[in-house]
Write a structure and sequence with these properties.
It is built from 15 helices and 7 strands. With 345 residues, it is of the alpha+beta class. Helix content is 44%, strand content 10%. Helix 13 (290-300) packs across helix 15.
């Protein structure tokens, strides 16, 4: 008879079912949690997510221990993951009844390094959309991923903490959280720049400026190929409110259906049977630019507007909205009440 007791083998399906129960229980108490749920077994697909994981794995301090978190993040153990400026917070399911609290602090990029990266990017990035999608020259990929000189943090810049009893600083709950960040960057790569405490728009500012100057020069020649504000917005992924008005807009003639509706409104019968003239209501006009549209929504609110509400009310994607919000803050038209909540300045 053996006196050794081996832990019972638990299948992946059983682990997922267990963590799912914990997640459902946690959602009842905190509906705002954001779990990390992978599609399949791939940890990251986007350039930023993949590079985040590769960066952690290339350091000797981490490469032998971070692998402990792969299975954890794959079976959904990261029940909540929040990424803010220079800080990562997570709730990770483990052997205990309650999930463990993970806190990771990351030092911001130094101004000197950021300035060097900005200078190296001048004229090479075409749009914010391409940057977030990882579509840029290989030379820039080398600059961003450069060890100790790029955008990604080294172990000296990362401070780890977990509430579990494991003596190791890089426990499996911390490792799962770090891999969870890579997965989250697939959903929203702009979070990487928020985490690192830098302004993403500064990397493409020079490209936008150079192209705008070329367009203005073409406008002087009255070329039929000149792009307007809408085209610039599509090209760079941001709004060009300061771009010149290259062409006069033609007045839009109302349709016959609209004319009939207006006539009906002005000749509406009263209760007594007499015809009374009614002043037709003017339809609300949407602001000409996306920036003006967002500014109108935020300034109209007294309590503040969240990024999620802006997405819902405008239909714009988050990367576009982050650029617009940043511009409005620089213009001192709005201010941040808290992370991701904005109101009139």
């Amino acid at each position: 008879m053996s006196y050794w007791k081996f832990p019972k083998y638990v299948t992946v399906a059983e682990k997922k079912a267990k963590t799912l129960k914990k997640l459902e229980k946690l959602k009842k108490k905190n509906p705002g949690i954001r779990p990390v749920l992978l599609q399949g077994t791939t940890l990251a697909r986007n350039w930023w997510g993949k590079s985040w994981n590769k960066n952690l794995e290339r350091y000797a301090d981490y490469e032998n221990r971070i692998g402990r978190g792969r299975s954890y993040v794959r079976h959904g153990a990261v029940l909540d993951l929040q990424i803010k400026r220079e800080k990562i917070s997570a709730l990770v399911a483990g052997s205990a009844a309650q999930p463990y609290n993970v806190e990771i602090s990351i030092k911001p990029i130094t101004q000197k390094r950021w300035q060097e990266i900005r200078q190296q990017c001048e004229g090479q990035l075409q749009s914010l959309k391409d940057l977030l999608a990882g579509k840029f020259p290989e030379a820039l990929a080398d600059i961003f991923f450069s060890q100790d000189k790029g955008l990604f943090p080294d172990p000296k810049a990362i401070q780890l903490d977990c509430s579990c009893p494991d003596w190791a600083t890089m426990c499996k709950h911390v490792a799962a959280t770090l891999y969870g960040v890579g997965a989250r960057l697939d959903e929203d790569p702009a979070l990487f720049f928020i985490l690192r405490g830098v302004d993403i728009n500064e990397l493409i500012a020079k490209a936008v400026e150079d192209s705008a100057e070329k367009l203005v020069a073409k406008a002087g020649k009255k070329s039929s190929n000149v792009l307007g504000d809408a085209n610039l917005s599509d090209l760079f992924g941001i709004d060009m409110d300061d771009a010149p008005d290259f062409s006069k807009k033609k007045a839009v003639q109302p349709s016959s259906t609209e004319n009939r509706k207006k006539k009906t409104a002005t000749r509406k019968k009263s209760v007594s049977g007499k015809r009374t003239k009614q002043v037709p209501q003017q339809p609300k006009t949407r602001p000409e630019t996306a920036t003006a549209h967002v500014a109108e929504i935020i300034t109209a609110s007294t309590k503040g507007v969240t990024m999620g509400e802006l997405v819902e009310q405008t239909g714009y994607d988050k990367s576009k909205l982050y650029a617009i919000v940043h511009r409005l803050k620089k213009q001192e038209k709005i201010l941040s009440v808290s992370h991701g909540v904005y109101k009139k300045a």
